[in-house]
């Protein structure tokens, strides 16, 4: 509950700041300012309702306008904040050119005394921020709704049996089937994965944002996934946010030919050699008794074999290292999805995207093939990875 109030407080503060710079600083007192103030208040309510509407089917139509405003709001805030310094400099220059008021009246610190000049600065700032935010969001929408980028990566595993060299994984995460995606989103991802002709398909969590009843039809193209040794799935945090939990999706995916690795492992036999492919539940399931169990997934195995672990969150590598994992495949971060969130992700996760070594374990983090919240990606295009071990 405390977290909810913090979020509402932040949203209210951001909207007040936008009102101050986009309404109060650009209008004179009167009917126009009143109408614009009402509009900003309405947009604040829209954001709150939008996050609730994700779980209420009959309100799902609010998702598009609501999340689009979230994206525009986000970039308006940061651009306006960046413009505070040049705005203050311009105000100081104009103020210095004004005659000193009779009687030595004190001037407003951040703007010239002349009302016309104050409006000019306010409107120029608002125009620059508006153009910048709309342009950025427009670009981000085209990236989010376009084809994912195919990233190719090669990982060298010390001591790997030469017969396993060249084994290829198609790695995808964060598909986020939901109210803003259609069946075509899944069909495109399946088509692109099949075009890679991978040996193993690994879906590392956050596949859905809703129940099987609501989103089952969107997932059905997954039955067409093609690979030599099968398709595998592990839960992400969003599977635990659905009304019925992850269990129903585990069953649905099984019907579609995708095996869920629920704190367990399978053997991948390739050219006479064996690799262990393990999967653990997301840490979000811990509160409900369905969290990761590394001992169950990795204990008692033949340690001469290499082991690849599917784990939704990169932070799970700390436990993976304690159990001798060679390579961990993860998602969750979206690569930040919208700059500058990529600078915030490291506060929670050890890797934002790409390949890195953490505690002696190689970790590949894919940016995800979908999006969460706003259908916008800036600086982090959607991704499907073809990863080859050597």
Secondary structure layout plus pairing:
Layout: H1 2-24, H2 31-53, H3 63-82, H4 84-96, H5 115-145, E1 149-155, E2 168-172, H6 183-194, E3 200-204, H7 212-219, E4 231-234, H8 247-255, E5 258-260, E6 264-270, E7 273-279, H9 294-298, E8 307-310, H10 317-322, E9 327-330, E10 354-358, E11 361-365, E12 383-389
Parallel strand pairs: 1-12, 2-3, 3-4, 4-5, 7-8, 8-9, 9-11
Antiparallel strand pairs: 2-12, 6-7, 10-11
Helix pairs in contact: 1-2, 1-3, 2-3, 3-5, 4-5
3D architecture notes:
With 390 residues, the protein is of the alpha/beta class. The protein has 2 domains: 2-100 and 108-143, no CATH class; 151-389, Metallo-dependent phosphatases (Purple Acid Phosphatase, chain A, domain 2). The protein is 38% helix and 16% strand. It is built from 10 helices and 12 strands. It has helices spanning 2-24, 31-53, 63-82, 84-96, 115-145, 183-194, 212-219, 247-255, 294-298, 317-322; strands at 149-155, 168-172, 200-204, 231-234, 258-260, 264-270, 273-279, 307-310, 327-330, 354-358, 361-365, 383-389. The strands form 2 sheets. Strands 1-12-2-3-4-5 form a 6-stranded mixed β-sheet. It has a 6-stranded mixed β-sheet with strand order 6-7-8-9-11-10. The protein is elongated, with a radius of gyration of 25 Å. It starts with a helix and ends with a strand. The mean pLDDT is 92. This is Metallophosphoesterase. Residues 167-335 form the Calcineurin-like phosphoesterase domain.
